[in-house]
Specification:
heterodimer, A: mainly alpha, B: alpha/beta, 6-stranded mixed beta sheet, 4-stranded antiparallel beta sheet, 14 strands, 34% helix, 31% strand
Chain lengths: 219, 339
C-alpha cells in the first residue's frame, strides 16, 4: 500500500519537475537569448558598440544573479501573484525560475558568442556584412555547438532550481524530498528523489553534449 | 606618357590609437596611389603599421585623418550603409584565413553572395565556379577543418572574389603557409591578377613575396612610407635604411655586420640551378675562397631560391673570374656596399 502510494507520488512529482524545467527553460531562452545577443553586439569590442545599453543591461543581470534563488523567489512573490494568480505550486515556481534563469542564460549566450574568433567577424565586415547579418549568419551559427553546450548547462541548472522551489511549495521532486524526507523524516524517500534528480541531470547533460558534438564541424 | 588610372588613392592618412596616456600614432601622413590592375606590395617589419594601413583601405580601421578613394569614390565620407555597398567591390584575405568553421568550402564562398543579395539560385553555381577557379572543384563539401592551410587560403581567395571585386587586399596571406604552399598561392594570385585584371594589394614582411608577384612596392617604416617604387628598382638599389634591411637581411641576423664592406656581392638564386654546388664549384674553379656573410636560400621543387651575401677575393682578376663563373650559371650577382 505504501509502495503504491509512493509510486504515484513520485510519478506526479517527476512530471511536475520535467514540466517546470522544460517550460521555464523555453521561456527563459526567449528572454535570455536576446539579452545575451544584445550584450555581445553592444560591447565596446562588439559589432555595434553601445556602451550605455551594454552597461545598463549588464548591471540588471548582475543584480538579479546576485540574489540567491530562494530569496529571489520570496522577494518576487507579489509579482508572481500578479502574473499567475498564485504563489504556490509549479506555475508559481515557473515565474521564479524564469526571473532567475533568464539573466543566467544571457551570460551563457554572451560567453558562447564571444568564443567566435574576432577575425571571422572582421572578414564578414570586410565583405560588407551588416551587424544583423553578422549576428544571424556568422556569430550564431559559428557559436552553435557552444550554445548547445550552454543550453545543457541551463536545463540542468534550472532543474536544480526547480527542486529548490519545492521549499516554498513549488511542487515537483524537490517538494516531495522536502515534505516527506525532511519534514516527516522519511529519509529513504529523500534519497530516492536525489537519485532521480541525479539520473535526470546526467541524461540531460549527456544528451546536450552529444548533440553539440554532432553539430560541431571543427572535428 | 599616358597617365595610369588610379584604383586606390590614400591621401594624407594618419591613424592613432588612444592609449591610457596620450595616443599611439601608428600611421603618419601616408600618401599612396595604387594603379588599376597592378599588384602593389606594402612591406615592413612587424609593428611598422602595415596591417593598419591595409585596414584603412576598406575602412575596417577608420583613419584619424586623411581620405581614402576607391576608383574615384571617396570612401571616408560615406555612411555605413553605402560603405558596406562599396565593400562588396573589395575582397580581403587574411593570414589566419578566417573561414566560417561551421560551413563547408562551398557554403563559405556562398556567404558573401548571400549577404550582397545575389539571387539564391545563382549563388551555388557561382560559388562552385570560383572554387574550380582556385583549384578546389573536388573539395566543395569539405569543412575548413578538413582542409590544409593552402587549401583554406584558396577557399578564402574564392570567397574574396565572389562578389567580383575591383580590388583584392591580402594581409600576410602567405605568412602562415610553408614555402611550397606559399609559391602555389602566390602563383594563383598572380594568375587572378592577370586573368581577371583585379588590382591586388599585398601586405607582407617577406621580400620574397614582393619579388614574386608585385609590380610596385612601398616600404613602410615607423608608420611612414620610407620609399616607394618598382620592385626591381628597390630590390636592386634600396635607398633607405629600412629598404636595405628588408632587401639584404631577409631572415638573417641584421646586427651581425655593420658599416661598408669591400668586394661584397649579393648573389640571387632564382631557381635556375638544381642541386648543383655552385659556390663550391666557383671556389674550386678559381682556386680562391669566398666569404659567406649571410644566406637565405631554400629549395622548392628541387630548385634553389633566395639570396646570399658573399665577399670575394681582394684580387681583381680572381674576383672577375668568380663573377663570370656565377653569371654563366644564370645566377644574378650585384655589388653591394652595405651588408
Amino acid at each position: 500500500m505504501f509502495k503504491e502510494g509512493l509510486l504515484a507520488l513520485v510519478g506526479v512529482a517527476f512530471w511536475e519537475s520535467i514540466y517546470m524545467t522544460i517550460i521555464s527553460t523555453f521561456i527563459a531562452y526567449i528572454i535570455g537569448l536576446p539579452m545575451g545577443l544584445i550584450l555581445v553586439m553592444t560591447d565596446k569590442e562588439g559589432v555595434r558598440p553601445m556602451p550605455i545599453v551594454h552597461q545598463t543591461l549588464g548591471i540588471i543581470i548582475n543584480i538579479v544573479r546576485s540574489v540567491p534563488f530562494l530569496i529571489l523567489m520570496l522577494t518576487i512573490m507579489p509579482f508572481t501573484k500578479l502574473a499567475v494568480g498564485t504563489t504556490i505550486g509549479p506555475k508559481a515556481a515557473i515565474v521564479g525560475l524564469l526571473v532567475a534563469a533568464a539573466p543566467f542564460i544571457a551570460r551563457l549566450v554572451e560567453s558562447s558568442l564571444k568564443e567566435v574568433e574576432k577575425g571571422v567577424v572582421e572578414a564578414a565586415q570586410s565583405m560588407g556584412a551588416s551587424p544583423l547579418q553578422i549576428l544571424i549568419k556568422v556569430l550564431m551559427p559559428e557559436a552553435k555547438p557552444s550554445l548547445l553546450v550552454g543550453s545543457a548547462i541551463a536545463v540542468t541548472t534550472i532543474l536544480g532550481y526547480s527542486a529548490m522551489a519545492g521549499f516554498i511549495g513549488g511542487g515537483g521532486l524537490g517538494a516531495v524530498a522536502i515534505n516527506y524526507g525532511y519534514h516527516r523524516g522519511q529519509t529513504d524517500i529523500m534519497y530516492i528523489m536525489v537519485v532521480l534528480l541525479v539520473i535526470i541531470v546526467q541524461i540531460l547533460q549527456e544528451l546536450g553534449m552529444q548533440i553539440a558534438k554532432r553539430t560541431d564541424k571543427r572535428l | 606618357m599616358d597617365k595610369k588610372e588610379i584604383m586606390i588613392h590614400l591621401e594624407g592618412i594618419s591613424k592613432s590609437f588612444p592609449q591610457k596616456r596620450g595616443s599611439l600614432e601608428v600611421l603618419k601622413n601616408i600618401d599612396v596611389q595604387i594603379e588599376k590592375g597592378e599588384v602593389f606590395g606594402i612591406i615592413g617589419m612587424s609593428g611598422a603599421g602595415k596591417s593598419t594601413l591595409v585596414r584603412c583601405i576598406n575602412l575596417l580601421e577608420r583613419p584619424t585623418e586623411g581620405r581614402v578613394y576607391l576608383d574615384g569614390t571617396e570612401l571616408t565620407c560615406l555612411a555605413e550603409k553605402e560603405l558596406r555597398e562599396q565593400r562588396h567591390s573589395m575582397g580581403m584575405i587574411f593570414q589566419q584565413f578566417h573561414l566560417l568553421m561551421q560551413r563547408t568550402a562551398l557554403e563559405n564562398v556562398c556567404f558573401p553572395l548571400e549577404i550582397s543579395g545575389v539571387q539564391k539560385d545563382q549563388v551555388k553555381a557561382r560559388a562552385k565556379e570560383l572554387l574550380e577557379l582556385v583549384g578546389l572543384g573536388d573539395r566543395l563539401g569539405a569543412y575548413p577543418s578538413q582542409l590544409s592551410g593552402g587549401q583554406k587560403q584558396r577557399v578564402a581567395i574564392a570567397r574574396a572574389l565572389a562578389t567580383e571585386p575591383k580590388v583584392l587586399l591580402c594581409d600576410e596571406a602567405t605568412s602562415a603557409l610553408d614555402p611550397n604552399t606559399t609559391a602555389g598561392v602566390l602563383r594563383l594570385l598572380k594568375d587572378i591578377n592577370e586573368r581577371l585584371g583585379i588590382t591586388i594589394v599585398v601586405i607582407t614582411h617577406e621580400m620574397s613575396v614582393i619579388r614574386e608577384i608585385c609590380n610596385r612596392v612601398a616600404i613602410i617604416d615607423g608608420g611612414q612610407i620610407a620609399e616607394i617604387g618598382g620592385v626591381e628598382e628597390i630590390f636592386r638599389a634600396p635607398k633607405t635604411k629600412a629598404g636595405r634591411e628588408l632587401v639584404y637581411h631577409e631572415g638573417t641576423n641584421r646586427e651581425a655586420i655593420e658599416g661598408p664592406i669591400a668586394h661584397c656581392y649579393r648573389v640571387v638564386f632564382r631557381g635556375g640551378i638544381s642541386g648543383e654546388p655552385i659556390l663550391g664549384g666557383m671556389m674550386l674553379e678559381c682556386n680562391a675562397v669566398a666569404n659567406i656573410l649571410s644566406g637565405n636560400t631554400r629549395m622548392i621543387d628541387g630548385r634553389v631560391y633566395g639570396q646570399m651575401m658573399i665577399q670575394l677575393s681582394e684580387d681583381k682578376e680572381t674576383r672577375e673570374k668568380m663573377l663570370a663563373y656565377l653569371k654563366e650559371r644564370d645566377v644574378e650577382v650585384e655589388e653591394v656596399y652595405y651588408v
